[in-house]
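Chain A, query sequence.
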Amino acid sequence: MKRSATPSLFSEADVGTPGRDEMNFAEFPVSLLTERAPDGQNELVFRDVVTDHGNGGLAVVRELRISAPGSYGLPTAKDEEVLLGLLALTKLRTNFADPKVTFTRYELINLLGWSTDGRSYQRLVDSLNRWAGVFLQYKNGWWDNERKAWLDVSFHVLDTVIVTKPRKDENGGLVQVQWNSVTFRSFQANYLKQLDLAFYQSLGSAVSKRLFRYLDKHFYHRARLEYDLLTLAFEHVGLSRQYEPWKVKQKLAPAIAELEERGYLAKLGPKDRYLAAGKGKWKVVFNKATTAIAAPVTEKPDANVPPLATVLTDLGVSAKSAKVLVAKHPAELIGLQVEAFSWLVGKKDRRVSKSPAGYLVKAIEEDFAIPAGFVPESVRRQRDAEAKRRAAEDTLRQRSETERAKAEDSVRRKATDDFLAALTPDQRESFVNQAIVDGDRYVVERYTETVRNNNRKAADRYLAMLVEAAVVRAAGAKPMPA
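Chain A, predicted structure.
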């Protein structure tokens, strides 16, 4: 395939970076298995029951409802490829620091391995518009990795899609998409897994691809998986619910065989693959192959690779360069430059747009000055700690002032009560009347108004203010009664 002369937004090293998969999207299908929805179908529903071990082992009914307007319709198998391509580009362009991602149509098509013709360009734009239009409704089905809870959420996958006409120096025109905030928060909460995008793209059918993504999520902590056959097929792969168990096995067979032949699944005979679980019920078993698939991607870090080197490779630096940088430079310097680099990426600074990984390597090697406006995390933490300290002092001071005011008020009220108690009833009545005559004009007016409006609670409050002021004046002229 002839490569365009258009300058790429990614370095050559970046293109080989593994993809990413959002794990909610891997759990339930978000598209059809076919390239076209049946006439009149504009909704998909998937549902299962799981045990919430973090909530006392309660059974949770999860549901995903996908609806789409008639103009573009439901997402298809090809649209799911576009979604994964967008995830990979978001990782490369912003490292999930910005929900807006800019790229050329050629770059995404090339990443997906599609032919670079006009039909693919239009197919891509249609797909992006479809993701902006499709509406996902999760009921107890969206895992919030920050709250560690199943949520009810409803959202569009993409908020905006902007496509510009290509100029002479561009191949396919620039595209800018913005992820919906629900989806993007999940990215930033790291509810993501690595995905061997090249392996995924090389699979021969939509069923193989869907099964691979679902199993790849669940193989992370286990080497053996066992599922109810129909639940897996209908709710997590997306096969037709009209199929009988024997038909389901027939439809899954080519996909399972492909994943076995490619070294992803261990080979099992029918008796080991399918276990009877009652009349008309079957369990299906999958074992992870012990041999690695081509171009393997693993989430488990290599014990020989320093954690900081893994951070650098995730940002696009080659493994070899990352090891050299970590060996030559202090961890504090590398950490600071990584922070500054991520900040520049989020700001879409021109300095990092041409070759992000190349800029980061040079920044570490030459110890670049901190960019204007960037505040390191350590400084932010120090400022936050200082702000919390000041807030605590302010709260303590306000509490002390409030308590002192309450104490003074209590003393003043007791003095007033004691003063009035020493008077005869006639003297008290005369004293109160004179307090109203001699009192502050504003307070007197408020008292008179509240009496006129029959607001006894407010009137009593204003009268108490007038009497207390009169007692203070009287105390200045002669000793207050004990």
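Residues 245 and 279 are 11 Å apart (CA to CA). The chain is about 50% helix and 15% strand.
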